[in-house]
């Protein structure tokens, strides 16, 4: 029998073709094995166990209809075709339907196992990690990343997943994957910590023929299998799988990939419509799945497998290259982006060809408009736009007042009889006097990082009792003689100085504290505790704090950068350090200061966060008997939504009817945080006299500066009716966008 | 050397514990160690054995007894120290773990190199007996009478490997604190608690 096997690339990220061929050769020594591939760079075309190689030109060149006819002819001659490339399986399922001899799943089965939802998983005892479509607006994606924490996976719906660790990297990787796979329909998926395992199976017309479990014992940097241990799956999993495959009428090989977390929960991360590349590892273990498939189809008994060991490893082998496929000269290394090195079998090219044919069209989920909070719209509607000299930051008073009021109410709800929860407004996030006045009006404290900031708030009428002093330059430029409520030292040296001052009767604060640098977090701030010697020095200093002064502990990590789960991890860690310090130094901790750099909605629109805060504060109260204050420093949460930068459209660039780009008179000078988190952009419809939230799309907004990085938003939907001179508002620009705004390109 | 003779020679050895001076020196180091461990775990890794000190302490002969306050000044620590640290961390997290003693078998060339390393530093390799070696790990109960075994020195999970293999497990003693004598299942092998269990395979 003639058996065509495709997908022969055998590099660090291999396709299964060679493994399938090796398995079939063992079971059917006299079969005629024909390797199929679409690039002469697919190393497996040189594998000696193939009797013949049918090398096609690239997917980009092939006439798919004619090629479909060729394969149909091959199958009609009685041959068998085992596709081993995911997208080839999709195309064949559509092109040939269920043609006799095509040993791959029907289109309906492929649809039911399509990422990210993998609908068929509902019938199996596995969970799917949380995910979100990248067609959602940027703020929703950023919110997802914060909720689940970094790292996050960026995945193409067809193939390839990349792990990213921050927002900038996410955007870069998403842009590469979009380009590679010719789709905007990417998705983000939460990372699950654990070990990787796989379930491989063979099925014919819905009948499960055999299945094996594989635990990865070693993986490559790309996360691909390098060694594994094979076993039979638990009977209950095999039974469930059998039912699902019957329902799907599955034919061919398949693989389910999992992460097993530390609680033994299996998370399904991929369902591949083909045998895995490690399939020969199963054959070594005595389970020849490709042979089982062929045997069922042909009715010819295979040579029985022999089990040598349940474990397998991969090695790198040099084999003779086939003389009829001479190796190509490699091109000179290029720094420009290239599709070929990572995907020699040309799947990205096939993705491009199949767009709108087998795969969904490009813009199917495009979200044209985004929701915008009513209070923002109200404030924007009150602005007299025609009087504005753009670009201009516009204060949003209702938004600011609402924020301050809500945070003040939160602090009341979180306070108990013994422990008062206080909120400190971070002056550095935005020292605008309107915000500071609102903070004072709502009974908030302030956090100052310099003597200048302290002087400002004292002049405004804040009492020193409502000031928390932080950072390495508290006394800069000239130390202030006022004694504030709390001063958290950034180093042991500063703590020593504070103690000396206190002993001379000039304590800088009623509460002397330390900022702790969590050992597992990269930060330049706080007292290091990486060795027991550093911890011992800290305990000695704490013992020296005069008894009439209270002692406090502080940490400050931006939850927006770290992710919310990791921020809570730092909280737990800090509480442990505080307890240890209290026990050893015998100095009661009176104040715990939690610094965060929160996103407003994470703190104020989330019942979950409030419940978590309440539980954490109650736990802290129980653990630290001398605790009387918890100070929350939510950072930019109290200022970020309070300003919008209003800009005007300078130029509109079109691609056909659609707008591809606009240039505005604003820039990264006014929105300098645009690289670090997505702002909510709005466009003012001058005919309707109405602000409209801009959803996810394929256009971008460029700043006026002659600077490469002056790109304010990518992947935004711009209405085709937008005109030069109309207004664009960049919301969420009230924090560091304001306080770190700079003048550039103005000739001064 | 028969396994039974080797096991007999180590039978009176209790699992290693770090000693503590009655004073701040040891209290501070122990508290620091526990806090460091808690800084490196999150909700997803709370039940996983600690790996953060992999590059911080280096394997080699340590002078017993080892006190907590010596921890960071020792150039090398042996498997007993690693195992004691692992149990301390898990215990502080509230994760159950039991001391585990294991006898492993290695080929002559490995044994000879280990002996050389110990003797060159003036320490008698009493943990070596023929081609059998004494080693310590941590057993983690993971369900009804099931355990997983962590090697805190190599920072990997151990399998029973009772058959002939490089570093095969020749004998094991799990210091289970569970009442009763139910057998413990380790990767499919049944181990009686608190007594040495020897593999039936012969050794060289």
Which secondary structure elements does this structure contain, and how are they paired or packed?
The complex is a heterodimer of chains A (748) and B (204).
Chain A (H helix, E strand, L loop, with lengths): L1 E5 L10 H11 L4 E6 L14 E4 L8 H13 L3 E3 L3 H10 L11 H6 L18 E3 L4 H11 L3 E4 L5 E4 L2 H15 L5 E4 L4 E10 L2 E13 L5 E7 L3 H14 L3 E9 L5 E7 L6 H6 L4 H10 L12 E3 L33 H8 L19 H9 L9 E4 L1 H18 L5 E7 L6 H9 L3 E4 L2 H10 L6 E3 L14 E6 L2 H12 L5 E7 L16 H13 L5 E7 L2 H4 L1 H22 L3 E7 L4 H5 L2 H17 L5 E5 L9 E13 L2 E7 L16 E5 L4 E4 L2 E7 L8 E6 L10 E4 L5 H4 L9
Helix pairs in contact in A: 1-9, 3-10, 12-13, 15-16
Chain B lengths: L2 H8 L13 H17 L38 H15 L4 E8 L2 H13 L7 E2 L2 E10 L4 E6 L4 E3 L9 E7 L9 E3 L2 E3 L5 E2 L6
Helix pairs in contact in B: 2-3
Fold and architecture overview:
The complex is a heterodimer of chains A (748) and B (204). With 748 residues, chain A is of the alpha/beta class. Chain A is 30% helix and 24% strand. In chain A, strands 15, 24, 25, 26, 27, 28, 29 and 30 form an 8-stranded mixed sheet that branches. In chain A, a hairpin with a 2-residue loop joins strand 24 and strand 25 (658-664). In chain A, helix 12 (397-414) runs parallel beside helix 13. The longest helix of chain A is centred in the C-terminal third of the chain and has 22 residues, at 564-585. Chain A is globular, with a radius of gyration of 31 Å. Chain B is of the alpha+beta class and 204 residues long. Chain B contains 4 helices and 9 strands, in the order αααβαββββββββ. Chain B has helices at 3-10, 24-40, 79-93, 108-120; strands at 98-105, 128-129, 132-141, 146-151, 156-158, 168-174, 184-186, 189-191, 197-198. In chain B, strands 1, 2, 3, 4, 5, 6, 7, 8 and 9 form a 9-stranded mixed sheet that branches. In chain B, a hairpin with a 2-residue loop joins strand 7 (184-186) and strand 8. In chain B, helix 2 crosses helix 3. Chain B is globular, with a radius of gyration of 17 Å. The mean pLDDT of chain B is 92.
